[in-house]
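Justification of resources, computational component.

The compute hours requested in this renewal are based largely on the per-chain cost of generating structure records like the one below. Each record pairs the submitted sequence with a full structure-token output. That output is archived, and it is also reused by downstream analysis tasks.
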Amino acid sequence: MKVLYSILFFLIFGYVSSFASSIVNSTNSTNCTNSTSSVVLQSNQIVQPSSNFINQTTVTDIRFLDNIKLLHDMGYLPFYASSVNGNLVTWQWDYSVIPNELQNLTPTGPNSILYQSAMKSFQNDTGMPATYSNLALAYNNGNKSSKGFVWILVSKKLPERIKVWQNGSYVLESNCNTGIRNGLTPNGSFMIYARYRKFTMSGRWPINDKPYYDPDVPYVNFFYSGDAIHGFVRSSYGYPQSAGCIELPVDFSKQLFQYTYVGTVVTIVQ
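The structure output for this chain reads:
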């Protein structure tokens, strides 16, 4: 009888021990699984907020947003529409800090200057009109912008300065000269429409109406009527002294010319 009790005791004790062990193991296993699942969930399903700049505009026509996405993916624009709610578009930029003057050019419709600039640059690169079908074809063939997105800011605040913005920061900067009389160099945003390594300039000096003739002006970028950004030899730079153009030290104008393209947007502020 004692033997039978002993057998029963060991059987019951072994079962309880095994059951307790299974509970412990099951608990540990569940914690690990939950921890692993939590990591997978966080990495695959929880979208962290972007640290890059985001802004919103109300657009007149949302049909151009597909074109903007393709232009962005080929390097012609530094932003795309991340969401649309009616006519309110949220724009996702590629960089965390965007100058205020550039933010102000965020598209509000297909006539917006940055969109027009990107289409012109695409056409110059590929020789094709920037229709959706051509953009999609170029994208699928691996086309990329030849120079990327470049924007130029000119400030008339003394000393007058010119800055070249690319890939999220200013990459070039120099003193410059604008029109000697107020209004000769217009404020606003314009697109470079023609470029020349050398160009002969002539006209009449706005102060005394005397004619001038300057052959072989270097590194010329026309952006508005007869106004251009170009190199010009002066004893100093940083204050108004041109006939309306934006004059640069010649060495700097050569550097800037390597960044510009037909379509580059130039913004001039007081």
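Helices lie at 2-44, 65-73, 100-103, 113-126, 132-140, 250-259. Confidence is low (pLDDT under 50) at residues 1-49.
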